[in-house]
Amino acid sequence: MTNEINDPVAMWQKMVGEMEKGFNSFANQAMSSPEFSQAMNRAGEVAAGAQKQLGELMEKYLVSVNLPSREQVTGLAERLQAIEGQIGEIKSMLSRMAASSGLSQGSDTALRPPRTKRPPSEGGEQK
Amino acid sequence: MNAPTGLDFASIPERIQSEVQRAIQRSIKGVEYFSTSGPSLGSTPKDVLHSRGTMSLYHYRPTSDEIYRVPILIVMATTNRGYILDLVPGQSFIEFLLRRGYDVYMLDWSAPRPEEKSLRMEDYVLDFIPDCVRRVQQDSGEQDVSIIGYCFGGVLSLLYGSIFKDGPMKNLICFTTPIDFREMKLFSNFSDRRYFDVDRLVDSVGNVPPEMILSSFEMLRPASRTVSQIQLWENIWNDEFVKSYRMFDRWATDTLPLAGEYFRSITKDLMWDNKLFNDTMSVGGRAAKLENIKVPFLHAVAEHDHIVPYDAAKHLIAKIGSEDKEEVMLKGGHVSLVAGANALKRLWPKLDSWLGKRST
Q1: Whole-prediction pTM value?
Q2: Any CB–CB contact under 8 A between B331 and chain A?
């Protein structure tokens, strides 16, 4: 271990670490009080209300200029993702059907290894 | 490096030279840091078996010549993305499991859509998990399924296991899973029923925004983000440090929103009434008592977990009805227990030795 007396960098790092611990501990103590909870939740309510109103206002504005809102774009992206998921599902269903009908060359399902693995013996090495 | 006990003046020029070199490296690497996007995460080859709204079921392609009979379904926490368990090659829990011969599936989550704000606890426990278990059975051709739940994914797995007590769950493994929510002191105070109007919040925002979830996690250690940025600057010359920082920072900030009704239920049933701990929890009218779980059970907890402190998790082992059950406490924090360099030496081998003999 490096001796901190002659290593200013180690001293600095230790000091930062101690400050972090001290501040976290102090803040945790302060945040454990009911007063903190009350103040935090009051601020949270105001912020949530303001966020909702701003969102609604923005949406109205975007509709008036004929542009999609972020929520609508996200919605489209997620629907696309769902379609991709369904394609994946169809693909894996087709792979399974191909595997069961013997037409499975190249499909991942057909290449699955056998379920015959045994655990290594006690004290034995696992590869 | 061992150093002498007193001031070593001879080493000062060497030290200054090293610091100057690092300062130069910092400037070069600092520019690089902002102009590159960081390592690609979650790249172990997988197929999407099923996707429905917020839920996705992946199957990872086996990499060993033979695999254990019983497949594993990993249930991820609903607040975060599953790629924490599949960071990069060499630091991936999924890759480790595949190499050790397991057949691995993951139930992962994406951000619930606005119209999914009405998803309830019932949807997660009585629909999503059983649906995925059925699909794993169908895909693998096996009736038995082992379940691994991480953090709140563990809570969902416990609820599922305690309701579907007649199978098909063969083994249950929970990582850092809380059951006594009174002991999550700060979260408990943040959601104090006298001041926190969860109905008003959910009714006004629908899905609970990810910023709110992230802030409540960060408030548990308010100085840590600033300090980690200082540490990043100090170590920006070190490629390994920067890579690790970027992986974990990206994951930690990639928090998911929570479906409104689901959040309401977590707050009222778990945070306020502590129903899971008090054995009064029910989901969709079905009692969820932990004593109903009789399958082999492993609970891994972290010694320095600031999100799920040990006091919030320690009673789980006693409440589980299984005869074959074990709790293991390992060094590390809430995330480093399951991901990163130390998990490779601690949790993963422990899990392999426990699960291997129960997977045939």
Answers
A1: 0.81
A2: no
